[in-house]
Amino acid sequence: MHSVLVTGGAGFIGSHLVDRLIQTDEIDRVTVLDSLTYAGDRRNLSAALDSPKLRFVEGDVCDAALVGDVLPGHSAVVHLAAESHVDRSLRDVGNSVSTNVMGTQTLLDAAMRCGVQKFVHVSTDEVYGPMPTGSAREDAPLRPTVPYAASKAASDLMASSYFVSFGVPVCITRSSNNYGPRQHPEKLIPLFLRKLLTNEPVTVHGHGQHLRNWLHVEDNCRAIELVLRHGVPGEIYNIGGGTDLTTLELTGRLLRIVGMSWDSVATVADRTANDIRYAMDWSKIAELGFRPQRDLASGLAETVHWYRGNIDRWPTPDTTPTRADGAELTAVSG
Ligand code: NAD
């Protein structure tokens, strides 16, 4: 893979992936295509932008003419651009469908015309829906419960169909919840940290027993790169291996790191369709050689350190969606 187009490269996971790819000797060109929505930020690429390997294109993955201009000459695509927040998808389903489904189809069309060697479509464990027991393998039925997950499931099926119908060499990755520096504070860990570090109370949804697997973003990017290099076209790879924690357990860990007590925590009514448990079998990516390398304790400590140093990056609470009753929406999921 000599030249890679990364969509959504100014976002959380995309920017970490770009940092990784530009340090790879065999890759001599990385192009980021990102429309810089509220979730994208050039500052996420501040180190990478110094590299002569990187080109940044501001634009929309739904813009077929632009995608048709930018993609030729790249040997591979890693597609991360998405509306990635569950609660926003509950408020604006059309936006999630437009970016996540139509944007994916626009890129697949262009990839088909250009004959790329690999198209990695980055997806989520949420497409499997709740797993009260057991764990989902890659061939498990898709049972998304919220529009975000449904739009990702639709885009996964669209990507698979381009492999079967047109031979586009698509691989799909489905990872668990990522954490680490640069995540937008609408997501649970940065939202809680931003509040705790400014002495504001945090709110936990319902009973707080929702179980999620927390994977360091660098581990996810390591796995995505593995799939980019060695993934078999037409295959789906679950990416897990982080640490399983309930929301209350995670909250306890964050409180300990920042040195605060449960007095800073309140509970609010649960949101609709807040899946109780996600769980995946990730033995297939393990066979490709993947092992997570970051442990939660040091990963969370590093994340807290980063937010302490960047606390003024999101100066007002305006970027945090609220519910009709005024309670903040704190997605447990990515
Ligand atoms: P993010 O919200 O931080 O970043 C998304 C990026 O996409 C932003 O830079 C945004 O500007 C860009 N973007 C949005 N709409 C666009 C459009 N129409 N055209 C071009 N760019 C656009 O998201 P993230 O957390 O980095 O997630 C990246 C991908 O990984 C998403 O596809 C998401 O579904 C998937 N994923 C995320 C997690 C997680 O825990 N964060 C877990 C599993 C899968």
Descriptive account of the structure:
The protein is of the alpha/beta class and 334 residues long. The chain has a domain at 3-177 and 216-239: 3-Layer(aba) Sandwich (Rossmann fold), CATH 3.40.50.720. The protein is 36% helix and 17% strand. It has helices at residues 12-21, 64-70, 86-91, 93-114, 147-166, 188-197, 217-230, 247-258, 283-287, 296-309, and strands at residues 3-7, 29-34, 54-58, 76-79, 118-124, 170-175, 177-179, 202-205, 211-216, 236-239, 243-246, 265-268. It has a 7-stranded parallel sheet with strand order 3-2-1-4-5-6-10, sandwiched between helices. A 3-stranded mixed sheet has the order 7-9-11. α6 (188-197) runs parallel beside α8 (247-258), α6 (188-197) crosses α10 and α8 (247-258) packs across α10. The radius of gyration is 19 Å and the shape is globular. The two termini are 28 Å apart. The model is unreliable at 318-334 (pLDDT under 50). Nicotinamide-adenine-dinucleotide is lined by residues 7-8, 10-14, 34-37, 39-40, 60-62, 80-84, 99, 103, 122, 124, 152, 175, 177-178, 184, 334.
Q: Averaged pLDDT, please?
A: 92
CATH class of the domain at 3-177 and 216-239: Alpha Beta
CATH fold-level topology of the domain at 3-177 and 216-239 = Rossmann fold
Radius of gyration computed on alpha carbons: 19 Å
State the helicity in percent bands. 25-40%
Measure the end-to-end span: 28 Å
The proportion of strand residues reads 15-25%
What characteristic shape results from the CA principal axes? globular
Low-confidence sequence ranges: 318-334
Going across the major beta sheet, what is the strand order?
3-2-1-4-5-6-10
Provide the list of bound ligands, each named once: nicotinamide-adenine-dinucleotide
